[in-house]
Amino acid sequence: MAQEVEHRKEVYVIKAGKASGISTATPVEQKEIGKAVMEFMYDYKYLTDTTDVSRNETDRMTLQVTYGMSKFTSFRAMQIDSLIRVSTAEQIRANPDSYIGGETFSIYKNYPQGRFTVIDKVSTDWFHYEEDIPVQEWILTDDTCNILGYECKSAVCDFRGRRWTAFYTDSVPVADGPWKFGGLPGFIMQVYDEGHQYEFTCVGINSKADRVMTIPEVPFNKTTRPKFYATKLRFDTDPFGYMMNVNGVNVQVKGADGQPRTDITQPRTLQYDYIERDWK
């Protein structure tokens, strides 16, 4: 069920029960930082309830690669941003589900040089933090598989609270991978954690890409990785309270009978762990 509220001539579309399902009718200005020479599409799957492995979320992600730099972001979010630019508030209110979806994070590797830049959004607030390029101590194994016709070798590592298995190929002239992964002698086609709570699988390769790579031009909250996760947890466990106390938006949710749905607006407990467990 989607609910919406108008505030400051913007439309906030809120997907009840999923904190990240928030969109506004204001498109985000983007700054060009390069042009991709290759693009890789990934299916990103993750559990939102670790007690029910049949319930997972999916998103289509894209890894844009250029010389010395890459960007990993949601392809769905890119499509929604383009749709918002040509839609009116009335159109959004008429079909709110079309404007919800897509992961909010983007990861820029080697931008600035020698660092990662992570951009993410909590409610309507944009956050920015940098970190040193993390060291992933991969152990090569004998397992193999075939993904998109590429013979892949495997490796495992412990990284930020999870044990990961990756399958990589040396037939792609790029040493990179999805999310924050890298450091293998080839390109990472698939990577998943023990228990398959998080999984990235390459489903397409464009070796003649020419799409520009951008970064949002917005007022960022400069932060650190632990502080960002603490803010994210505050929002994910009490999204309506966060919006009221931080954004000044008072959201009232009503059922089909017109009566307030206070059960939806109450704080809740997350049924899953974040992809990085070591931030606390």
UniProtKB/TrEMBL annotation:
InterPro entries: GLPGLI
Protein name as catalogued: GLPGLI family protein
Provenance organism: Xylanibacter ruminicola (strain ATCC 19189 / DSM 19721 / CIP 105475 / JCM 8958 / 23) (Prevotella ruminicola)
